[in-house]
Amino acid sequence: MSLTKTQLKKIYTNLARADHFDRRMEARMLQGEMVGFYHAAKGSIAPGVGLCSLLNKDDNLSPHHRAHGIAHMLSKGIDIKPYIAEHSGKITGCCAGRSTYHFSFPDDKVYLMSAFIGYSPTLAVGWGWAAKRRNQKQVVACCTGDGTYSQGRLHESLIFANNGKLPIIYLCENNGFSMSTSTAHTHPVEDFADLAKGYGMPGYVVDGQDVFAVAEVAQKAIKRARNGGGPTLIEAKVLRSCSHSVGVPDKDGWEERDPKELEKEFNARNPLRIARERVIADGLFTLAETESIDEDARKEFDAIEVFSDSGELADLTVDEMLAEVYA
Amino acid sequence: MAVTDKNREIIFSEAMNEAIRQEMRRDDKVFMLGESIQAPTYPHTSGLVQEFGAERVIDTPLAEAGIHGMAYGAALEGYRPIIDFMSSVFSYYAFAEIAIIAGQQYFMHGSKTPVPMVMMGASGTGHSLGNDHAMAAYGTYLHHPGTKVVYPSTPQDAKGLMTAAIRDNNPVMFQWHSGMMMDRGEVSEGEFVIPLGVAEIKKAGSDVTVVASGMMVRHSLKAAAALAGEISVEVLDPRSLEPFDMEALLTSLEKTNRLVIVDEVYESGGFAATLSARVMEQGFDLLDAPVVRVTLPNMPIPAGALEAKVLPNPASIEAAIRKTCACRLTGG
Fold first, then answer.
1. Is the domain defined by A5-314 classed in CATH 3.40.190.10?
2. What does pLDDT average to over chain A?
3. Are residues B163 and B24 in the same domain?
4. Which of A191, B31, B219, B247 has the fewest C-beta atoms under 10 angstroms from its C-beta?
5. Where residue B261 sits, what CATH number does that domain have?
6. Does residue A288 sit at the B interface (CB-CB below 8 Å)?
7. B68 and B216 together in one domain
8. B215 and B133 share one domain
9. pLDDT tens-digit profile of A135-148?
10. Residue B2 lies in a domain
């Protein structure tokens, strides 16, 4: 079992798009074009691409909040225009401008984002239960950071999931920090993947800087889930090359993280550069073709911005909103 | 709505069981999950696993947030789950999910994707069990928009409201008083719906309106009986607290001009306070006396013999009625 050339090309293209979109979203945040927060990914954009490029439209996805799941969303084939418009509070947004960065795309089985970290693993159980009951070989991708793995709800989810042999892929994108708290201080062992053993499911540690390595493991987990084998826990070790949230000081405990060191680390393990070297070496793309992919990503985001900027801000009266609280 | 075939008496729990059973037969998207519901722990799940199988009557791990997440995820996928929290207050272990995330999902995501789910559980003052079993959890959920809240007082209401709750496209918190589970009453055999948000006058009267839900209806009827011939008491049972039938209350006040609110939760931040304020805002001219509230005092509900000291009861409701009726407007 291995990835086809078509899959490898799609994964690389999605990574280039995600990398570019992440930088553009950060810029929009700094320009005041987006509402709320932006949690940039710089350096940790690859795992979502590796897993979600292999999902089907009718698979469930709960994206990680890092880069607001842009890697996951575009890799699953979701229309990014209403996603960005939602981030700007526009009526053309996917939630009519009510949710900003807590977007949803129910037709693509992305139902919500929440600031309650740890909300998604228990929901994944419900989606997995429904998928199993329908018996149409759908899977659930439950993508979170390592912070979720501090929540008791994660434990609840893992026991439900393997009791029911539910088709869930848990992707823990471990960047070593919950905001400014080092994971080394909050988790007693080095690998979250070790948890899998206690719940009777396979667990893998993978280099999250290598999108193809993530995809190889994800492919195995997805196949297992589609065939009724049950859940898998994948831990992707990633860098955190920027602060938790745009505009927030980047600290480890009370100490500033050294920007020069972070930049050096990022340059050495930049996931897009690693992937580009691989696709060129393997003859999947020429350098010129990768440049053209970058250019296409730029144009694609330009069009997304035009869509978002031309939309009206959501504007409802309180009475109009009150009428829409209940279904 | 008119219900005609009241031809036998069953207990409150059997009435809930009948509604669940009829809805599970009618719609295969309906399923039930909770801790030890197959056993059954309470009689309202009796026989369900035998009829519908363990795939639709699911015994879960002891994990309220996990149970809620499983139901919520399934609801988003078009299923219609019924969670049995056993004691309604155990739902607090899934509080953020119920009150904020699932409860407000529909509006926050553009009012497109409904979240049909029923969350049921008993409340239980009167058994001397202490705060963890006794606390009625409905007041807390009323504070958070997005979740409907039902609190029936008779077997007939329990069946009709449960049917409505299961067919509703919103999260519905369906709670009942554990002291009423074995209450016997006339219940219609077939399927029927009592719409949420429609109050019922449980006893007509002309001097004072008492608003009460669940066990408090029974206590209020006792107080009304004790005052018979002296004060004519109208007992209004809203049956659901969200939505609340404000029209029925204002109509009653046009006749009685006096109001007592009996609320089996804390005084502070409680529904009685909210309702009292709403009546002042919407019906101040109807009132001839200040509204009187009968609630739990702002302290933990003690276990053992002390519990009875803090609970609203027929005597405290009677005293509240006397208080509001003793107040006469003077001057003019």
1. no
2. 97
3. yes
4. B247
5. 3.40.50.920
6. no
7. no
8. no
9. 999 999 999 999 99
10. no
d(CA A131, CA A199): 21
Tally the domains of chain B: 2
Helix pair A5-30, A211-226: axis angle to 10 deg: 110
Residue B124 lies in a domain: yes
Check: CB of residue B45 under 8 Å from CB of residue B38: yes
Asked whether the beta carbons of residue A95 and residue B77 sit closer than 8 angstroms, the reply is no
Region B250-275: mean pLDDT is: 96
Decide if pLDDT at B2 tops 80. Answer: no
By Cβ distance, the residue of A96, A104, A130 closest to B74 is: A130
Which residues of B sit within 8 Å Cβ distance of A? Answer: 55, 60-61, 63, 65-66, 68-79, 96-97, 100-101, 105-116, 145-146, 148, 169-170
- In this structure, the answer to whether residues B109 and B79 fall within a common structural domain is yes
Give the end of a domain, one of B152, B186, B220: B186
The whole-chain average pLDDT of chain B stands at 95
List the one residue out of A145, A144, A147, A143 whose CA is nearest residue A181: A147
Looking at the structure, tell me whether residues B155 and B29 fall in a common domain: yes
pLDDT at B100: 96
**Residues B136 and B87: beta-carbon distance below 8 Å:** no
Residue that finishes a domain, picked among B186, B212, B247 = B186
Determine the pLDDT at residue B224: 98
Residues B74 and B172 in one domain: yes
Q: Which of A28, A99, A110, A36 is nearest to A73 (CA)?
A: A110
Please report, as a single letter, which amino acid is at residue A295: E
pLDDT digits (tens, 9 = 90+) for A215-264: 999 999 999 999 999 999 999 999 999 999 999 999 999 999 999 999 99
Positions of B marked catalytic: 64, 133
The CATH number that applies at residue B49 is: 3.40.50.970
**Residue A45's closest CA among A81, A26, A19, A6?**
A19
For chain B, say whether A156 makes contact (Cβ under 8 Å): yes
Residues A156, B66 contacting (CB under 8 angstroms): yes
B73: tokens are: 């995820």
For chain B, the first-to-last Cα distance in angstroms comes to: 43
Contact A99 B68 (CB under 8 A): no
ipTM, two decimals, is: 0.95
Domain around B278: 200-326
CB-nearest to B101 from A119, A131, A325 is A119
Sheet with B117-123, strands from edge to edge, namely: B57-59, B30-34, B80-87, B117-123, B171-177, B148-150, B240-242
Residue B191: inside a domain: no
How far is the alpha carbon of B55 from chain A, nearest alpha carbon, in Å?
A: 9
B5-60 tens-digit pLDDT: 557 999 999 999 999 999 999 999 999 999 999 999 999 999 999 999 999 999 99
